[in-house]
Structures are given as structure tokens and as C-alpha cells.
Amino acid sequence: MKRCEVLIVGAGPTGLVLALWLSKLGIKVRIIDRTSGPGTTSRALAVQARTLELYRQLDLTAAVLERGHRVPAANLWVKGQVAAHLPFSVIGAFVTPYPFLHIFPQDEHEQLLIERLQGFGVEVERETELMGFNQDGQGVSAQLRHGDGLEEHCEANYLAGCDGARSTVRKALDIDFPGGTYQQVFYVADVQASGPALNGELHVDIDEADFLAVFPLAGSGRARLIGTVRDERAEHPDQLRFEDVGQRAIEHLKIQIQQVNWFSTYRVHHRVAEHFSRQRAFLLGDAAHVHSPAGGQGMNTGIGDAINLAWKLASVLRGKAQPGLLDTYEIERSAFAQRLVSTTDQVFNFITADGRVAALLRTRLAPRLIPRLVAFKTAREFLFRTVSQVTLNYRYMPLSTGNAGHVQGGDRLPWVAEGGRDNFNCLNRMCWQVQVYGAVSASLVQWCSGHGIPVDVFIWSEAHEAAGLVRDAVYLIRPDGYIALARSNADAQVLEDYFEERGLRPG
């Protein structure tokens, strides 16, 4: 019998990132997957800025940037012309070190994560299926079946279900998965093509014709097409070929296709599990929430789930926190998933709605309003912050408290690169830490030193003020880079009370 501390079911990006984070924190994991090998098609594409920021803790960001394709701008097309041009580099220049959309196909992404996981001596156990499990106050007892038919009994402290929308773990926990399925059928095609929409930027046609988005892939003339299938063609999507889908939107974007490398159809679901955990078992990624592909949020949200849960599991397993800390996983991530499904629903309905009124909104009103809207700096930043997930926060939740200026407990730490110092470099550490912009008391530094909490002090500047930070305020930062406590006049007792009230032990 193989025993581990965390048994991870599912080796997609969510499960692999969870395994990596836990392994780096010294937690013994097993990760199983019922498939015979990693995916070979580029399903999810977008790696958002917030994911790139968090990947710095695993030294993954540079490799992702090197292997993928940077998308500098998005274009909205109407009636065969570009109606709006949105340069990410201008919009997000002072928001994040990564002011762009990054394309890194899921199959390549998974391979990179697998390689890094092997560096910790962990292999994905393929053709291994979870048959069932029991749990009690002491741990989880799981029954596994291997590809050769042999069955195995596995003991673990905790179980993580990263096994997709048809999750075996979720079904075994008898957790409802309310929501529905959109009527529209989508197609996805990886193509070799030419034309003005093959310039390395994102292009979206919002005309009255079939919806179409063109995502650039690495390499000249390579792109991913995502479009709708309408009318009677949608009745039997499994029988469709690329030649059967509508060509109007493709013609509107002036795309000349030379070769189709991959083609598939699918329906989009929108569901959120009623609970993200039960006792010692957790749901992450598509096992917990599925939504429309609008905005490229799916994979990034699953990765966010993994990072949120990983440090909490490690803290409890190493005696640095009471088991109640794990309750905050559902509180924080379920709230975000609900908001995300609601937001992507609205966007999805706008871009796919049929009828004369819907067509008028997309072709007449939107082309006029969107350019005017994005002319305002605040509107551009709001759009970028939302899509890139840097605006995601855990305000008013159990681990979040206090405020200093515009920054509140639960917020992502504002990024500032000033005077040769990047305040995100400190976040590469997977630990509790404190940042102060200005002066810090010797007693607070002494208390932090005695509890193993690094303190980074930055010389106050106008750039810090512009980012919403407050001079001499104390920002206590969680191991996942989010602010736990923000206080203008904080002393050592404030930090002492924070940890004691939540049953946490730093260091």
C-alpha cells in the first residue's frame, strides 16, 4: 500500500500545478489520471497575467513566456473592418509586469508542468482510475484500479478532485453541479492561414454572421479559430467537418485558409458546484466550475484554485495551521467562480445572441460605444484587470482584514517597479511576509524575525502612492501573494493578534 499526504485525481493543468506547489512545499503527493498520456490537442490557450505572476513562485514564468506567443492587442471587427483596437501594452503597463495576453497551448503547457514535476521525483500515474473512497477524521482511504486490471488501496491525508466536469470525486461526494448548457454549438480549428487577421494579435468578429475569434499561435500563419455553428448545422455537431461550418465570418475577417490541422465541435456549459469540499476531499478546476470560454478564464481559474489550496494544505499538514484554515478554500474560490460564471454568461450571451435587436447591438451600438469607452484610462484598466484576473480579491473573508489607502485585506498586492526594485520579486518566496513602503518600527521587525517572517522595506516614492499604497503602512502578505492584513498604524501586537485569532503559526 502506497501512502501519501495528498492524492490528486486528474493530471490536467489544475492537478499538475497543485502537485507542483505541494511538492515544492515538501508535501508527499500522488497524482493519477485515467488517460494513457497527456493531451495532444491545444484546448485551453490563454495564460493570463495573474497566472504569470503566480508562476514566478515555481520559476515557471520565464519558460512559459519563452515557449508561448505574446499577444499585444485585441481587435473587434464589424462589417469586414476593424472597429476597435485595444493595445494591451498601453492598458496594463503600470498594472502588471505582464501587460499582454499570452498564448501557450494546453498540451505544451501540460508537458512543461510534467517536466517540472519530474524534477521533484513525482511521475503522473497513467491509466490509473479512482474507483471510490472513504474518509473519516484520520484521512482518506481510496480504491484505485490500474490499466492492467490490478486494484490498489491507497491511504492519504487529503484528496483533491481535479478530474474535470464529469468528476468522479464530485459524484462520489454527492455534490450537486447546478447550471446548464448553452444551445449554441461551437467549433474549434487549428489552421494554417493568411490575411490581415493573422498578424499575431487577437481578432474577434461581432457581426451578424457567425461569431468568430482568431487566436494567434506560435509560428507564422498559425491560428486557433473558435466560432459558432448556427441553424440546422448545429443539430448533429458530431457529424460536422470544417467545410460544413459557416464561412461568412471567416470571409469578413479576410482569412485565407491553407490547411486545417485539427477540428472539433462542442457545447458550452455553465455550472458551479454547490460545495467545493466535503471533509477531507476537495474539488478544483472544471470539477468545481465550468463556464463559457469568453475571456480565456477557465484554465487560469483552475490554476488559481490549485495555488489557493496548496499553501493551506501544506500549512495544516505541517502543523502551521488548524484544519479550519481549509474551510477558507471554498469561501474564497466559490465566490470567485460564481462571479466569473455570471460575467462570462453576460459576455457569451452578447456575442452569440440571435435576432435583429442583438445584431443591431453588435453591429451598430457596440462599434460606436466600445472605442469611446476604451478611450478612458479607467475603463481600459478595468477591462484589462478583469480579464487578466489581477482584480481578483478575497475582501471581507476570514483571512482578510484592514485597509490602508485604496488597498484592503484580501487584495492582490499592487505591483510597483521603482528605483531598480520590483516588489513582486519578494513574492517568489512561498511564505508569510511583510512589506512596508517608508519606515518600519524596530519592534515590528524584531517580532517578525522571531517568527520567521521576512520584512522588506522600500524607500517611499510617488510610484507607490500612485499604486494605492500608503506610506509607512504594514502589509502582511499570504504565501500565495495576496494581502492578508493592511494597516496604517500596525505594531507587532496587531500581527500577533492576526495569527492567534485564526489559529495560524507563521515561519
UniProtKB/TrEMBL annotation:
GO MF annotations in UniProt: FAD binding; oxidoreductase activity, acting on paired donors, with incorporation or reduction of molecular oxygen, NAD(P)H as one donor, and incorporation of one atom of oxygen
Cofactor requirements of the protein: FAD
Pfam family, one: FAD_binding_3
Gene3D superfamilies: 3.30.70.2450, FAD/NAD(P)-binding domain
Domain FAD-binding: 3-343
Alphabetized UniProt keyword annotations: FAD, Flavoprotein
Source domain of life: Bacteria
Membrane spanning residue stretches: none
Name of this protein: NAD(P)-binding protein
